[in-house]
Amino acid sequence: MDSSKISAALSAHLHTNGTVFQYGTAGFRMDATLLDPVMFSVGLLAVLRSKSHKGKTIGVMVTASHNPEKDNGVKLVEPLGEMLVQSWESYATKLANATTSADAILAVLDSIVKAESIDLSQPAHIVVARDTRPSGQALVASLIDGVQALGGHIKDYGLFTTPQLHYVVRCINTAGTASAYGEPTEEAYYEKLANAFKKITDGYPRLSPLLIDGANGIGAPAMEKLGKYLGDSFSYQLVNKDIDSRGKLNFDSGADFVKIKQTKPLGMDLAPGQRACSLDGDADRIVFYFIEQDNTFRLLDGDKIATLAADFIMDLASSAEILVQRDDGSRTPLQVGLVQTAYANGSSTAYVKDTLKVPVVFTPTGVKHLHHAAEAFDVGVYFEANGHGTVLFSPAAIHAFKSSTGSTPAAAKSIEALRCLTDLINQAVGDALSDMLLVEAVLTYQQKSFSKWNSDYTDLPSRQEKVKVANRGDFVPIKADTELSHPLGLQGKINEEVAKFSKGRCFVRPSGTEDIVRVYAEAATRDETDRLCYTVCGIVFDGYGGVGARPATFLC
Ligand code: G16
């Protein structure tokens, strides 16, 4: 470690304004003007992480996803495309906060090297990409300074969706192995998805065009490129694709807006019966929707995507008579499992357990938690209600799909569809474009309308609100985010309110990506849901550090 080189490089990125940095749900996220020292520290950490993996390539994505355009953020990606392992999140936090002086940063670097027994003579390879935020390029330059100060090699992929960055990381690190994931290029990514989609939908009548809201972010140009590879196999109309005008990214558009407001985005004309979807700012989430003839808005969120996918895969596996080889030599049917968070609608969980008869596991919010839980199954379907998720296939499941032939033409066809799904579905991370094609493939295969899909089960009314508080760190979630241990006494008050409503459920948790706490409620009717949600918002705001104006929408 060349201390003088690190000290000299740090001098251009010193942290001077007292902000406390925290690696949160999806990395560091905040106003972009505060991020320069963080980026430098992430560059250093990425080098150490690569060295600790004996030179495997580590990814860095510069994005603030669904957050406003003025924000930005950064997250690290592990060699197989997963989120940074949790035990390193605290190193990321310590290193970012140590950018106040050369002595502080050298001490933290040294402590990480010792704690992880890192061999500093190992090489370090980093790849970086960014979304369309105006602040992105300068932040990448700060990151590169950090990487080079510790002697790492870095390749800048420029503008990418978040899942594309995860994809190339996985491709680079699996190249030449039995589980090679593909060519680490943007073109190969589109080709892989498009080929799988074309194969699985071949011979079926096309669905009506899909309206796609690109949230004026990176997903829009990516969709346009993907569209060229899909040709006439997929018909769509892209709106909200302006990535050049300032202030438009995610503004009243995108998956998060549509999910929370339960309405169509700005910039989209949606007639009854038309099919639509929204990507988020970095294209790692997607939700679908339509409006009924009576103008009722219907949302098909992550819960609905998960049940559609799980049901489809189980049908294919059953018709293909797939058996999976176990360690003890036995061969048993494919085990499908579903992973949800506290935000999953209660009706979806009941449908999965009682109708699909699939086991459900709950984890705290954050795809990093869901991803690992999903790895326990042959087919692990994980989706957050906000539309972030994917389907993981275990090596044993992939082997079963590859080695089975099928005793009938129908079985052979199902096996072929399962094989296509392993290419169509991004195995590294939730991916809006891949998930969009997954949904469209299932609906094409089954010739199923949005309305029919929506009728699989009826969501309980739900509402999610944000409350600004003085210190969201005071709110400590437990039991997979369903309760709070602190502030003391608050959980008891929430429980009292919940008990007043039939099918009532409510929880409060601090956001890891925004400076707010989230309040989620559901109950038997819309009116009861809103009363429960706004009552709890009021309790939090009034008694637990609400700041600014008491939001006008509060009813109590
Ligand atoms: C990120 C995470 C998601 C999480 C979301 C909201 O999504 O990857 O797993 O659900 O933040 O998290 P929180 O409620 O803690 O703010 P994205 O799309 O913003 O990267």
TrEMBL record:
Domain spans labelled Alpha-D-phosphohexomutase C-terminal: 487-533
Entry's Gene Ontology BP terms: carbohydrate metabolic process; cell wall organization; UDP-N-acetylglucosamine biosynthetic process
Keyword field contains Membrane: no
Natural source organism: Chytriomyces confervae
Protein's name in the database: Phosphoacetylglucosamine mutase
Function: Catalyzes the conversion of GlcNAc-6-P into GlcNAc-1-P during the synthesis of uridine diphosphate/UDP-GlcNAc, which is a biosynthetic precursor of chitin and also supplies the amino sugars for N-linked oligosaccharides of glycoproteins.
Annotated positions binding Mg(2+): 65, 280, 282, 284
Note accompanying the cofactor annotation: Binds 1 Mg(2+) ion per subunit.
Residue numbers annotated as active site: 65
